[in-house]
Design brief:
single chain; alpha/beta; eight-stranded parallel beta sheet
């Protein structure tokens, strides 16, 4: 028996048999193509791409009615990559001009683009490089004629199958939709594989590094998607214990489902709003099924990545409107594009190079980028306002630091509304404008932002990293990443108090919002609005239903008076126990 540790995606516990999936093609043939044979080689490349495009289209058409709502969108994203000129045209050029065989040319270009994604500081955008390699695997397999060798779907009543792999593309996960769980060497919480695993509501662990090499087919395994652990070849005593835990987890899930329509309030009747974070319009349906009060964070970067041209106003409008319509009158908070510097657009006329910035995390990103590209920003602002005609929409500005960023943004928002009014000959809808507090400077001056804006949203992921100067994806320092460091708690608390004094709503939309260990703490700080992944919503709701807000306020006030991390941790433990 041995254990492997990675990042848990959730889904509870499963005890089952391992199925080790084949790894990606590693040995890519390399040879020169004679000049007269190059047109035929290009034809071979085009046919392979057409095969994969057809595979994805057929999969999308055959999705069952109970397929996860994200499935269609994820398949579309992978299909769009096959039309990316920076991938396909550059590959064709390598065949035509340099005589590289199709596999060599395609693989080389994929590796080049994937290396660019690896430089991104943002975890969500860094994971888009894996989407690219997943699509590339399908094309390389089509070129080699090897096809997709996937096991048959498990039959109901069989021992659960836990699929172990170096990586699995969302399209292949859909083939395995009755799987008991997934354990992957690669990936993080922001990967599309993780997003789909959450939607499938099965245990999943990513980032195991060498799991696919160490586990053998038909090994008994225990996969704990909450703890991020894969136990291999456990003895009978351990198996029995985890079988019991698995049954208890299934029972808990059914109990949680009863809370979907229960109003969210503390024991002393303080109403709390629970919103969902989404990255794709299709995820709005999952938010509704989880009983979310609205969308607290709709990330818009997905439309801008993996393409040479920017999405037009109409394309953006359709995506935003789809989410607004799906929420059926519940508010949708749309964050303007958080991109730039370490997250460049390939269609950017300025050709920003990630390597050119000495420190990309501190470069021209988020609102800085939008203000530097007013035409692009106005296009997005118009699309958001058009979507607001279908239901309540709030507009969220990322990574604010200076007051002049607010003033410039508000001027451009007013300009976008005026442009819409002239075009439609009617008044454009009013959209509340909020700001993300995700750097220490913004938290320390949160009062100024609260006075000038309609609401605030605390992005704890970036706030923690900027405060502690720690990248949690860097294994050398990941152990130092502490969301409950006294400095972080002070900044979160200050922001909440500043919003309270200004009479403005404030929410937390980072991972801290969905962390059960932080629920009582945030309630005690005065937070009344949480936004998290839909999969976390019902567990957080259950915890809130057990809280006494007035009692927690006094206890948390005493806890925040300490600057000793050890004492703060002890206080947090007592807070969670009582």
């Amino acid at each position: 028996m041995f254990s492997l540790h990675g990042t848990g995606i959730g889904g509870g516990i499963v005890v089952g048999r391992a199925v080790v999936l084949e790894s990606r093609l590693i040995d890519v043939p390399r040879y020169r193509i004679a000049l007269e044979q190059r047109p035929a080689e290009l034809g071979r490349l085009d046919r392979a791409i057409d095969v994969v495009r057809l595979e994805l289209a057929n999969l999308a058409e055959q999705l069952p009615a109970d397929a996860p709502p994200e499935a269609q969108a994820l398949l579309q994203i992978h299909a769009m990559m096959l039309d990316d000129p920076s991938l396909v045209e550059q590959t064709r050029l390598a065949v035509e001009s340099h005589g590289q065989n199709a596999e060599w040319a395609f693989f080389s270009q994929v590796e080049h683009l994937a290396a660019q994604f690896e430089q991104f500081e943002d975890a969500y955008l860094r994971e888009r490089g894996r989407d690219l390699t997943q699509v590339a695997d399908r094309v390389l397999k089509a070129l080699s004629g090897s096809g997709r060798r996937l096991p048959e779907r498990p039959k109901p009543g069989d021992v659960p199958l836990v699929f172990i792999a170096h990586d699995v593309a969302p399209a292949d996960m859909l083939h395995l939709k009755q799987a008991g769980g997934f354990a992957l060497d690669l990936g993080g919480t922001a990967s599309h594989t993780a997003i789909l695993a959450r939607s499938m509501n099965v245990p999943a662990v990513v980032g195991l590094n060498t799991g696919s090499l160490l586990v053998r087919d038909d090994d008994w395994v225990v996969l704990d998607g909450d703890a991020g652990v894969l136990m291999v070849a456990p003895d009978e005593i351990v198996l029995e214990e985890y079988r019991h835990r698995m049954l208890m987890g299934l029972l808990e899930r059914k109990q949680l489902e009863r809370l979907v329509h229960v109003p969210t309030a503390t024991v002393d009747r303080v109403a709390i709003e629970l919103h969902a974070n989404i990255e794709l319009p299709a995820e709005a349906e999952q938010a509704m099924e989880s009983g979310a009060d609205g969308i607290g964070l709709f990330r818009t970067e997905f439309m801008f990545m993996n393409r040479d041209d920017r999405p037009g106003e109409d394309e953006q409008y359709e995506a935003y409107a789809a989410a607004v319509i799906a929420m059926r009158g519940r508010p949708v908070t749309i964050r303007t594009i958080d991109i730039g510097a370490d997250k460049p657009l390939r269609g950017d006329d300025e050709g920003h190079d990630p390597a050119a910035a000495a420190n990309p995390a501190l470069g021209q990103r988020a609102i800085r980028y939008s203000l530097a590209e007013p035409d692009m920003f106005l296009e997005q602002l118009r699309a958001i306002h058009r979507a607001a005609e279908h239901g309540p929409v709030r507009l969220l500005i990322p990574m604010l630091v200076h007051g002049h960023e607010v003033e410039q943004s508000l001027r451009l928002i007013a300009q976008a509304r005026e442009q819409m009014s002239v075009r439609t000959r009617r008044a454009a809808p009013e959209v509340p404008v909020g700001g993300m507090i995700e750097v220490p400077a913004a938290a320390l001056t949160a009062g100024m932002f609260a006075r000038r804006l309609d609401f605030l949203s605390i992005g704890t992921n970036d706030l923690i990293q900027y405060t502690l100067a720690i990248d949690r994806t860097d294994h050398a320092v990941a152990s130092l990443y502490d969301p409950f460091h006294p400095a972080v708690l002070q900044l979160v608390s200050q922001t909440i108090r500043a919003a309270e004094r200004a009479g403005k709503p404030v929410s937390v939309c980072g991972e801290m919002a969905g962390d059960l260990e932080a629920t009582r703490l945030l309630i005690g700080m005065g937070l009344r609005s949480f936004s998290m992944h839909p999969a976390s919503l019902l567990r957080v709701k259950r915890e809130i239903l057990r809280c006494d807000a007035a009692r927690l306020r006094a206890r948390v006030s005493r806890l925040l008076g300490s600057d000793d991390p050890v004492k703060v941790q002890a206080g947090l433990k007592r807070l969670r126990e009582n």
